Q: What sequence folds into this?
């Protein structure tokens, strides 16, 4: 019956309230200033972390320079036929200080070593472990190169290890 009974609207079926910026208290300006200050602190901290991070790795990390130097010395020796022949005819294993270490190879290593490094070599069989026999207090950088004979020069292969450390 619709005539005298008025239908009441159900409150749950009414349209939802609009979203507004009432999530913040009435003093919005103060909250915005707090958020701005927080963002500014985050930006400053981020810039400081980036600067500190670059400074930590840029100063004392010489490993890549040392490895590049070692590889270039070893490649030069590998490409020189007479030095390769000297290495292949040496009695192995032979240490840097021993009489059997080829003088041409020793001179090339000494000539190409930068002034801030000290480098020595060791010649071993290709399958042998070829490590530095004396203990060093500094960081030791090591690279190895396989020394092979020229075509038709035999089947003897050697390994030349180069060990470098800072002075």
A:
């Amino acid at each position: 019956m619709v005539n005298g009974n008025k239908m009441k609207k159900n409150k749950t079926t009414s349209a939802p309230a609009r979203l507004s910026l009432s999530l913040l208290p009435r003093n919005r300006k103060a909250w915005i200033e707090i958020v701005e200050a927080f963002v500014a602190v985050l930006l400053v901290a981020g810039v400081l972390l980036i600067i500190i991070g670059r400074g930590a790795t840029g100063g004392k990390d010489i490993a890549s320079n040392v490895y590049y130097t070692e590889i270039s010395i070893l490649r030069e020796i590998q490409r020189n036929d007479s030095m390769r022949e000297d290495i292949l005819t040496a009695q192995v294993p032979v240490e840097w200080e021993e009489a059997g270490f080829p003088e041409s190879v020793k001179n090339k290593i000494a000539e190409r070593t930068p002034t801030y490094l000290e480098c020595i070599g060791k010649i071993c069989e290709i399958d042998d472990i070829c490590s530095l026999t004396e203990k060093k207090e500094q960081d030791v950088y090591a690279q190895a190169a396989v020394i092979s004979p020229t075509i038709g020069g035999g089947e003897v292969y050697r390994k030349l290890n180069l060990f470098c450390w800072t002075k």
Summary: The mean pLDDT is 84. The longest strand covers residues 117-125. Residues 63-166 form one domain. The CA atoms of residues 30 and 36 lie 10 Å apart.
